[in-house]
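hey all, quick one before standup. I had two proteins in the batch that finished overnight and I want to keep them in one place so we stop losing track of which output belongs to which input. First protein below, input sequence then structure tokens straight from the run.
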Amino acid sequence: MEDPEKKTEVVLLACGSFNPITSMHLRLFELAKDYFHETGKYKVIKGIISPVSDAYKKKGLISADHRVAMAKLATKTSDWVEVDDWESSQNEWLETLKVLRYHQQKLLSPDPTNSLQNAIPVAKPGRKRKQEPNRHEPIKKKNQSPDIKSVPQLKLLCGSDMLESFGIPNLWKLEDITEIVENHGLVCISRAGNNVQKFIYESDILWRHKNNIHLVEEWIANDISSTKIRRALRRGQSIRYLVPDAVQAYIEKHNLYSPESEDRNAGVVLAPLQKNARDSKN
């Protein structure tokens, strides 16, 4: 029988719009938890939902206050998945890597006053920050002290669409992708038939760190998406059983997701595309 004390503890972090949160978002956590527990080597102790800030500028993105409120309602009955509003409360869009660093620092140092300053490198105004490969990396597993060894592994939980978005020019920095897969790892939930392995094979960075990418296949077809939920709402169609009842009630109460809200940020370039394109010119 496996000794639970010897199992590696894992915290799952999901970043995204959650516009709105759906039953599929919640299923990602359950699928990942089952996968890790079935290996007999890991124990998932927490799941974190981190909605993106309004500064992401995605078309149709409603207020972070509403998105966070709906996510909290959706996870109210969960005893291990929680919502963190730190990312959503930022005035500027933050790269996913910085969100990972923030939560990694919280695991290392529960004092929240230490998390922000240690998680995000500070760049002086007007100067491009030089990359410092050794800075902010989690302490290596070898030669760790006993208390550091007990720190859970933080892994980024995502769907195959996020993994494949690594290939979109200027959406991700190559050094960010490298640090995410090398220092944290990915847990990718893919639908049966998705060729995620081919995408990993065609990426030198992902192939190099393929052992730190956990592919979890979803055999029970579930094609629910926030985009389809919003479309149904604009057309006056029912979304019952596609989102938690409390989320549906919240949407109805606040009259969210109209044709007008879908036009929000229309014509605006996505924040990461703006930032990375600008940085590549400097």
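OK second protein, same deal, sequence then tokens:
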Amino acid sequence: MSTIGSFEGFQPVSLKQDGDDQTSETDQLSTEEGGPGTVSGPRQTSRSPSVTESALYPSPYHQPYISRKYFVTWPGPIETATEDLKGHIAKTSGEKIQGFWLLTEIDRWNNEKERILLVTDRTLLICKYDFIMLSCVQLQWIPLSAVYRICLGKFSFPTMSLDKRQGEGLRICWGSPEQQSLLSCWNPWSTEVPYTTFTEHLMKYTSEKFLEIYKSSGFMSKLVPAIQNPHRNSTGSGRGKGLMVLTEPVLIETYTGLMSFTGNCNKLGYSLARGSVGF
């Protein structure tokens, strides 16, 4: 009976375990590079400098599959919204538009709401726009001559509040706080509150195309000079004060915040693709 090694065309091969005296490919290369007469020592590997560049966006919403859920990032909605508002202003007031911005409004109940802001020569417009149906739902006109204070700073909450948020915002105040009734203070749908609060939009870092309209600093650079001109030119307002720009915490007086927590976690204040509902 023949063995495997006796088959014609096959040669017996001896298998060595780890640790046997066998020169590895790396050792052979090092020996060849060193050559005879060289002193062995620690080998140093030099790396060529990288020619690539990388940039990180400090926002988790820059991934395409996440940002595409927001209709405002789709091609066309923001352009359609600006054209609609331009046509509306041209028909109603004919004022010159200084710029458009898309920010997030934080109401006094800490609810987030997607809003388009327009600054004209005499008016600040706050627009609630439906980016799904491409239609203006609500438009609030605020005379620039009535704005007397702007606060910039981090958000602050009462000590016992359970509904807190991080970040910074800006608050625009107009009219007189004494004119606000007690009913409007506790009515979440009231439009008689003489101030509004904004922060930067969640989609700020999705693309460089929309970076300028999402930045609150760009909005402030246009808003403050636009407000100062009406204050400088007005003589019979009776206020006797100009615009005050303060750096102080922006207080939001909420305590439990159950509704705002639910709404903000589900992004109910944004035009968002909710997906299919069914089984």
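Flagging for whoever picks this up: Strands lie at 97-106, 112-120, 123-130, 135-143, 147-156, 168-174, 195-200, 244-247, 250-251. Confidence is low (pLDDT under 50) at residues 1-7, 22-34.
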